[in-house]
Every structure is written in C-alpha cells, then in structure tokens.
C-alpha cells in the first residue's frame, strides 16, 4: 500500500492553523502553549490515520480546527470535577461523600481567599489555636467536655490509640474487627499506633465476661468498641453494648473508646436509618472518647472528630502525631459553618444536603420524577418512565437497609443501557446512574432538580 502524498500534504502546518480566528481566540483564554500542544496531537493523529490508510479524503482545515477545539476542551477541563449522582447512594465514597451545605462551601471559600483567624486570637492579639473554632460548638451540641478534629476518622482512631494505648493492650470484640473500604482495618491501625490488639469473644457472640477475663490491669490500656458500620451479623448473636462496656471499663479504671464510624447527631428513625447509633446517645452512655467522620451522616467536610474527656483530649493535643494529622483551614471553616446549623434542628434538616436528601419523602421524589420525565418528554428521541425502587445511605451506614426511592428509567433510541451508561460517564459533567434489569436508572433522591436541564442536554447531544 502506498501512502497518498497528496492527502499527507493537505495537512495544514501548525503555524497556519494557529492563525485561524477560532484558535487565536482560545489561545487568549488557555494560553498559546496548550493550543499548540493540542494542535500537534490532533495533527499527529491525523497523519497516522493517513499513513495507516484510514483517511482517504484531503484534510479539511475547518474540520481540523474543530477537532483541535474539542481536544482543547477535553485537555483543559478539570480532572476533579462535579458529577451528577444518579445512583441513589447519598454518601457515595467514590463520588466524594457528603455534599456540603451552602454556608459551609461559602466559609471554605472565604477561608481560602483571605487571611483568617486560623491561629490568631483577636482578643489578645496573640497566637490562638486552630481547634478553638469548632470545639466550643461540639461541646455545646454534643455535651462533651472537650473535642479535637483531625484529618479523617482513620486518623482519629490512630491518634486515640497512639496517645492512650501505645505499648499497651487494647481489648476488642472479634465481631468488631472491621475493614472499611480503602484499607482501613482495625487490626492494622492498631498495629500502626503501637498498641497491641487483644481479641475477645467470637465472630457472632461477645459477652461482658469475655472482656473481664482479658483485662490485666498493668498491661491493658483501653477497651475499644467499633461500630460494624458496613456489615451486619445476623442470627445467633450477642454484643456488649457501649453502656455495658463503659461499666466494665470504669470498674477497672480503663478508658472506653468508641469508633462510631458515621456520626449522626439526630435520631436515626427520622432518617430511615434503623438502629444506626447517634453521637448524643453514645455520649450519654458514658464512653470516655468517641470518634466519627465529618463527611458521613454529619454532612460536613472530610474530618475525624474526637469527643470526650478533657484529660484524654489534652494528651492527644500534645501528641506529635496531631501535627501530622491536622486539618486545614478550609476544612475547619466548612466544619464550623456546618456545626452552626446544628444549633437549630430545623435549619440543619433543611440546609444540610445529606439530611435533606435522606429525609425526602416518597411523594416529593415522585413529584421530582414527574417533572423530570415531562422535561425529557419534550425530546421525541428520549423515552422515560417513573419507576419505584430502592436506594442506599452509603458511606458505610446501614449496610442492609435499602431505602425506598423513585427512579426515572431512561432510554435513548436504540442505545443499550450499557452503552448509555458508558456515554453518560464520559460527559463533561459525568452522569452516574445504575443499570437494573437492563434498564438505565437515575435515582431522584440524589439528583437535584437544578441538574435536570444538564441531563436533558447531555442526552440530547447523544442523539445528534
Ligand atoms: C468510615 C469509618 C472509618 C473511617 O473513617 P474516614 O473518615 O473515612 O477515615 C473508621 N471506622 C469506621 C467504623 C467507619 O465506619
């Protein structure tokens, strides 16, 4: 096969392409270097197509310019960018867990764009503490003596164990040696912290006497309870409640630690959360230290929140690990703004997206679905139907519990559900749905009405 020299020669020179008005315009926006790089990539691909015999026409300059523009758009768009979550999973770890409330997002923005009182005490004009912005709120809301916030809950568990039990034994039930996705395993975190794990009981049953037998006062550093947030053991089971564990710990003068995982502040029943423990009730049980994530049921930024006895928290503040695990100003600002909403239950419920999404009623979701199908119905090439289905809380909360939800099944003329799924994933604003029985579903619980237009546009673009 001979290469067609006329076709090869019809590729415009890069310099010539850069003079095209559209490319001059985009060079003003993105900088010449990126435009040149994209032009080179597109031209090189074209050359290879021609050499391989896959391009039998002369190269059309304006077509090439359009391809360069499209390439430029793909290359310059943010790699970390918003998606539309149509999975129905409210706390989707891969999609960034909790969406922040407006006040938190604004606070993070202000902290990012200005100097701030991060570690400055305006009353004394002296150095302040970065923890002072949220500890008083946590104390007020949760009724704890003291609080400290670190990078995430995994860091919180590490800091707690390293401070209170390094070189000592920590007793944990065999039924609670949890692995959370992303390689957080209780036994491994324990090892990192320098504490020694002492397992008691069996996978399905642990009794108070099992802890009592394992306690050896010189060597035992603490009793740890871990919420089995992402699995459930059913059938012939027994676990020691936090209250019972606290009684045992205090009898032997040992701190009782509780890794709650997801730390909701409100009663679980109000959010279809079954028996998910809540922070306020856990505090009341008398545990010395409890910790949980900022971006699970609390609905704030990624953080590990540690509450409890002042004497233990003060020790943690002195641990050099605290410096390595510290949270940044944007996180603190967002957390403070989120916590302030919790001072007023109604406000929290309305304004914190996680709570609003979880408490949305079936009727309101049906209404949303009908608005969405009506919008999609304007395009004759798109078919849609309202389907009642089930979603999940996610974020390692309520593993078995499927919460009733409403979906819209979408079909675009002749495209299979799998192909549709792939295409929507690759959109500028990716749309993440799920496939159930060969149907492509978008769950209305996690999609905001303001995103309907974007979805309709993306689907329309696919039909062209
Ligand atoms: C989620 C979870 C963690 C880890 O929390 P991150 O904030 O993701 O680090 C630890 N323990 C339990 C029980 C959890 O559910």
UniProtKB/TrEMBL annotation:
It catalyses: L-seryl-tRNA(Sec) + selenophosphate + H(+) = L-selenocysteinyl-tRNA(Sec) + phosphate. GO terms for molecular function: L-seryl-tRNA(Sec) selenium transferase activity. Its cofactor is pyridoxal 5'-phosphate. The modification N6-(pyridoxal phosphate)lysine is found at residue 296. Pathway: Aminoacyl-tRNA biosynthesis; selenocysteinyl-tRNA(Sec) biosynthesis; selenocysteinyl-tRNA(Sec) from L-seryl-tRNA(Sec) (bacterial route): step 1/1. Residues 8-47 form the L-seryl-tRNA selenium transferase N-terminal domain. InterPro entries: PyrdxlP-dep_Trfase, PyrdxlP-dep_Trfase_major, SelA-like, SelA_trans, SelA_trans_N_dom. The keyword Repeat does not apply. Its main location: cytoplasm. Its EC number is 2.9.1.1. It is an enzyme of class 2 (transferase). Keywords: Cytoplasm, Protein biosynthesis, Pyridoxal phosphate, Selenium, Transferase. It is found in: Cytoplasm. Pfam families: Se-cys_synth_N, SelA. Belongs to the SelA family. Converts seryl-tRNA(Sec) to selenocysteinyl-tRNA(Sec) required for selenoprotein biosynthesis. HAMAP family: SelA. This is L-seryl-tRNA(Sec) selenium transferase.
